[in-house]
């Protein structure tokens, strides 16, 4: 397991401000926009974000410093980063297998089963259009997650009743067994079979949550996606993750941004690129071209006389906004000169005389396969 401080390249006693500074620098350095298709940079970027999500939170940082993990439930400092799909697939199965009393995978053996634990983090992908990434958008996001059962306040006991202290283990959750052997007395500790380690016995289960204390339900959360977001960015929505267990705090929700590809505009960081199709006379003589921008506005672009095929014209500051900044990228227009495949008789005549004037040798009117056929039939 990589050290989170090493990932952010800061000493263990770094101040929160230093951590933030180091994070900003590294995120800039490894941002996927600057390394398209580079898996290594993408992995590094994810690690940096994960390390920061722990070290930027004083509570999680303290837990990490103490236990070497930020997650109260698992031995994984990245918490519930396993991803949404795994949660969906295994969440219910685990909830059933362990009566919902455990937070998820690899529940810690350090803590007794009845101590409060933070709920798991949830990771979920949010798709936005390129225009939404430009403008920012309010989005209702549906999240399937556990919440504390309101009927029993999370105790799992039928309303009006309380979980009782397990008489078998006196609420310890574990039992000691002594065994007399020829080598002496052996003592072993094992999970209490009556309460399965919770230390509590529920005589009558809450019918709403079937004794688990939590209910899986669809939550709709309104989230503001800021202008300038890019694919693979992670947005943290604090405490919007899974409900805590035994009164622990909820986990966080991480939204992974996925910006859809646009047919007419290509994004490169904060810059936008598009194509402008010109006729030969327009490129030769120059023109005022109307360009449609991403947000549907029309910009007038001055195409100077003598513009070449493939030439790139720039509209400064008309690209994507930069995240958390008033600055914006630029809008690049790539000129494409279209050669017509069909001409009217008049156009053909004019172009022939232009070719004459330019002393450019051109094919005969009747050359080519069609011309040959024509002549063959006439002869
Ligand atoms: Zn309940
Ligand atoms: Zn017990």
Structure description:
The protein is α+β, with helices and mostly antiparallel strands and 379 residues long. The chain folds into four domains: 1-70, DnaJ domain (Helix Hairpins); 79-152 and 212-260, Urease metallochaperone UreE, N-terminal domain (HSP40/DNAj peptide-binding domain, Sandwich); 266-337, Urease metallochaperone UreE, N-terminal domain (HSP40/DNAj peptide-binding domain, Sandwich); 345-378, no CATH class. Helices cover 26% and strands 25% of the residues. The chain contains nine helices and 15 strands. The chain has helices at residues 4-8, 16-30, 39-55, 58-67, 84-97, 130-135, 280-285, 345-357, 368-378; strands spanning 122-128, 137-148, 164-165, 174-181, 184-191, 200-201, 214-225, 234-237, 253-259, 266-268, 271-278, 287-292, 298-303, 312-315, 331-337. The strands form six sheets. The chain has a four-stranded mixed sheet. Strands 1-9-8 form a three-stranded mixed sheet. A two-stranded antiparallel sheet has the order 2-7. α2 packs antiparallel against α3. The longest helix has 17 residues, at 39-55. The chain is elongated. The structure holds zinc ion (ZN) (2 copies). One zinc ion is lined by residues 166, 168-169, 192, 194-195, 199. One zinc ion (ZN) binds at residues 149, 151-152, 156, 206, 208-209, 213.
